[in-house]
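User: I want to check something. If I give you two sequences, will you return the structure for each one separately, not as a complex?

Assistant: Yes, each is folded on its own. Here is the first sequence with its structure:
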Amino acid sequence: MSARWWSVCVLAMAMGGCFEAEIGVHLPDGGVAAGDLGGSRSDGSARSDAPLDAPLDAPMDAAATTDRVAPPSDGAAGYPDGSVVLSDGAVRLPDGAVVSAPVNGCVPMELCNNGLDDNCDGRIDESCPCLPGHTQRCYAGAPAEAGRGVCNLGTQRCGGTGEFGSWGACEGAGAPMPVRCGGGMDWRCNGVIDQGCACTPGMSRSCYSGPPDTAGRGACRAGMSTCAMTATGAAWGPCEGEVTPAARQCDGVDRACDGMPEMGCECILGRSRPCYSGPTGTEGVGACRAGSQVCGRAESGRTAWGACVGEVTPTDDTCDGVDRSCTGTASRCACTAGMSRSCYSGPTGTVGVGLCRAGSQRCIFTGGGSVWGACEGEVTPQTDRCDGVDRACTGSSAACTCLAGATRRCYSGLPSTDGVGPCHAGTQRCVVSGGASSWGSCEGEVTPQPDLCDGVDRSCSGSATRCACVATTTRPCYTGAPGTNGVGVCHGGTQTCLASGGTSNWGSCVGEVNTNCLPCLTASGSPWQINRSSGPVCFGRTFSVHGDPGEYALAAIPSESDGSWVPVTRTDIAFSDSSALCGRSCTCLDGGEFTFFQTFFDIPAGFTVSTLIVRIGSVDDGVRITIHNARYPTGIVDPGSYVLLGSGGATTDLARYIVPGRNRIVLTHIDDCCSARSISGVSVELNGGSLTTCR
């Protein structure tokens, strides 16, 4: 800023603020462009153009920013601070320094409050005072671009507090853009629409670089050129696909595009023609025939006819049926070499009869001629051998009863016995001797024999009437009352067939049991099994009677497949052991230990169970009987099935709980006091009899 400006500003501030006349734009011609508040020129005349804070859509042109005043008397324009614009555009500063003339629209120093980067330093109106809150149009690029094409003006706001502020950033202004050909815009902001665009990208056009009169003639044809973007705009690309005149190749194609494809060519490359070098009149006779020539490239670069390929000219005959001399005849050939024919030297009427058959002769070339060779492969009449072959070729074999090696079925017994029982036919073989043949003896036949009661129908009668059975065979037997076989202990035995004097009968039934047919115990090979898996328990109360039914509330009977079951060796159990309650907190009538015994028996269908009682010889301290079967799979306990210490040794009749099929009886023994622990003399009585172990 000049000293004069500051002096004016200080004076103005003393009077209440700087005047708006001092807030202006220095112009190269010495004038001042008014700021936001309007202004005056250096010559004292008022401005007539719009200020920079005029409506933002008003154009920014030279008239708005470069109003001039009359130059000084020395002929040079000047600035109010004493700077002078010289005739070449340079500026001489008050201190005598000279600043070069503007380049690309840029001036040496910033012109305040015009919204342009006048000195092109990347800043707009730097160090220029403005009134806070005011706005002006602005452009951050080169001043010459402002308002041109896509370089639209932006908006700049004066910010700060106090009387003067500073201009903020220029917002919303445009800038030069890469050219987009076809858009119809001044993309570089230099006044040129679609600069560098010779065409619109993507368009195409026909092109041809050959002589105009050759396009579309012969092989010549136009190509296509496509418009594409370049570094500076858009231009037509190379002409692709065009075919222009070329040298002739004698291939029938008009490559010169002058309508004369065969000019200077002996023949057209690749074409062919017939040819024949044999004597006149032989072509097409016998084996002789024409060949062909193909046009090829000659050493001169032109074309010429090649050799005659495939022709056949006259040669010597070989009596092979082909007229190789091409004369139309083969006089010295009796036959065609290699051919054959049928031949036969035997008596007339024998060929094709029996074994006799014709042979064949082959035509043999003998050097200049041909003859028929010997008859080979013929068969003429021979002596017969009774082998089924008519070697004499007479059509019959009268002396042969049968054919050598032939066999036939034979049987000398009664026809009704053939194939009955062991009887069967044999085989006769044909025997040849002295040119004749006959059937031999019948071998391998079996004829009827006396019966032996051994299961074989040796008499071949279809039955053995005197044999009640087959000797030494056995069969099951049972002589007890019907319906008792297999019931309880009862079971059948075995009878053996005894033969004597041509007759046979069944012997006595051995091994059967047919009395006292009660079901039997089947428990794993022994009558009873024991399970001691349950330990001592406390009842939680004290009972008054040993073996009281209430003590069994904690008894859990193991399943019949539980792994703790083991056999009991005695059929009446006889179990005795020390009490496990001794030394425990619950020892007598308030605690106990359970031991379980189980056995099984099967009731046949239709068998009547009238009574079932379990007897106990002795027990300490009690035992309970539980029955398991299909009707009671989880078990049932009758009130009368408890046996107490000193109260007798039999249960009530439990027959009403027994069902056909498998029945399981479980004895739950309880020891409820630290003393003896035993049970013995156990038996199961069914219908008044004791069950026994099955055999």
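And separately, the second sequence with its own structure:
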Amino acid sequence: MVVDTEVPRNEPPQPWIVLRAIAVIGIALSLFQLYAAGVQPLGLFYQRPIHLGFILVLCFLIYPVWGRSRPRGVLGWVIDGTLIACAVLVGAWLPVNIDTIANQIFPRDIDVWVGVLTVLVVLEGARRAVGLGMTIIGAAFLLYAFAGSRGELPFLADWMPGILNHRGYSIDRVASQMTLGAEGIFGIPLGVAATFIFVFVLFGAFLEVTGAGKFFIDLAYAATGRQRGGPAKAAVIASAGMGSISGSAIANVVTTGAFTIPLMKRLGYRPAQAGGIEAAASTGGQIMPPLMGAGAFLMSEFTRVPYVDIVLVSIFPALLYFGVVYLLVHIAAVKQGMTGLSADELPSVRSVLADGWHFLLPLVALMALLVAGYSPMRVGFYAILSIVAAAVARALWDFLTGRPTASGFVALCRRGIALTLDALELGARNAVAVSMACAVAGIIVGVVGLTGLGLKFSAMMIAFSGGNLVLALLLVVIASLILGMGLPVTAAYIVLIILVGPALTQEFGLPILIAHLVVFWYSQDSNVTPPVALAGFAGAAIAGSKPMETSLQAWKYAKGLYLIPLFMVFNDAIILGGPLPVVIWNGAIAIVALTGFAVALEGFLWRPMPLWQRLLIVPGVIAVFWPDVAVEGAGAALILLILALNRWGGRQDGTATAASRPKA
């Protein structure tokens, strides 16, 4: 997984000593994480605070107080130097004082004030690495904890509806909740970031520096480049492959889009269309197993479902999503009469595999270890070792089959060491944003647990939806879109599942895994849904198109993001399993319904589709969601009938065209 950390072009370079400090601290953090993952596991009150301390120091070095476009100056260094010292204190306080803290009944004043300092430093770090929205939300939850007749800010209770009122808590109680237990900042979100997420971020960094990203892109081009709309289809496949590495839709856009968007434009796609296709495809990278961004790890911790099980049940929905995007791309290419690229413009599959087949071995090893029952953290450790071994073996093979010399071997070793250090530093840099988001998410989790806000929010959700599950899911979509305007996907998922999860599972009866998958999928929509479509904006920047127009195109191509979670809810056999005929039936009607929806959306398959046929497909798609086999079958049959009529019309058009041609 790679988080987008690309430096803006107008950013002045940091002093060399700062860059060196970032490199040294980043490498030290990665080595510490590897030690904890594969050599000596540490207790949570050692692992999590030390991880947070490292991350905060990196955060304040990478992100200056005045922003990355302005030099720090003397005052800036005074502020950041103080914050770096505070970060070291935050990381060391709990491990050094763990025995005293664990054996006391009431917290010492010094523990409370260090807790307050920790909260403030975390909020400031999140402002810099994640954005102001995350900090505001974290601060709002803290204010909510203080509101109440017995809290530090009792007057705030007058501003809250009756259902949200609570007794209020003192600064001692809140600080203790946030930093002296496993229910606040050092809770599950940061725990997952400090273990599973980091080791797989590091795995992605090793893949990136060794050239795996280019391999996946080249392989996608070689496989699809000659087809109609080949570069667009390559974007879909490359984004699925990069999803095994990337945890950021924006990073996926700038990585694969730099190659695919210019080629799509050259082939005939409008700039906004090209940027939208890339944004929609890149969004799928975060729902693509085995990594699924950070979501699969968090989901495993929250639901207590083994990580490998979440990966396995997520494969089919992810393939459905990419299948819908691929079909929409194909239809657009056929409608516009596009052709593919010529053979001399494309690499061959054989040559691409010959050059990079070893990049597949770490992914195979990763899946094999997961299936064998190893913990995700240990799997990530061995996956990193496997990519290092594969890269070293390939480099030695190329060296020995060439003209080996002593000087060449020395240069090879130096390059290997340099790439290893680059990967260790890159992994630490890429982990800063997600770890800061998870730390603030811990504040939110702590406040929700302290005040019982989750149950109150569930009651409000039931009241607004009137007990109707479809309306409740619509509220989740709206909430995810609003949260996504200011939060990254991982943070939006955590906040949403904390607030709406109890209602979906306890009141509406959804199985816990399906509730989490639905919320996780809907948390992706801020990447492609106007007015704030972050991946769409990144695609627009590369395509040279208008951001809003590009976002609308991305929203159209990513429609599977909204429909597939509904299949999880109303056709849950595709997630929970069951008798084989039931699973096959639900999978088949899901494919038919999504195909029909894509065709109705574009109004074209083999030929233009009349409006009455497009409208008639809609009730067929709705019927597939109905919890009755007969209704499902009728809906699927209606869709297939309309598709068959379109196919027959296309053949008739082809026959008429052939008959009208003059005979030689």
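Because they were folded independently, the notes below concern the second chain alone. Residues 162 and 456 are 10 Å apart (CA to CA). Residues 16-186 form one domain.
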